[in-house]
Design goal:
Layout (H helix, E strand, L loop, with lengths): L1 H15 L9 E2 L2 H12 L1 H14 L7 E2 L12 H10 L4
Parallel strand pairs: 1-2
Helix pairs in contact: 1-2, 2-3
Amino acid sequence: MRWLLIQFVRGYQRAISPLLPPSCRYSPTCSAYTITAIKEHGALKGAIMGIARIIRCNPLVKGGYDPVPNHFTIFRNKRARDEYRRSMNLK
């Protein structure tokens, strides 16, 4: 199941994403985040995390650095974001 979901996301990355303007507000992109989440947390939890990330990626959020957390959660990885900002001397 993992392989199938990853191939679906990679198909999106190769076929559909190049046709659309870049609009992801996060780094890594939502599709890369989903692939990593599926690899680290399995098909079901990874897919849930990816869908939650896509829902969060909208014009009302600031965006920024948001890697896949080590534990399952549908919320943003604020600790990694704050560490990244401190390391880059941002806010």
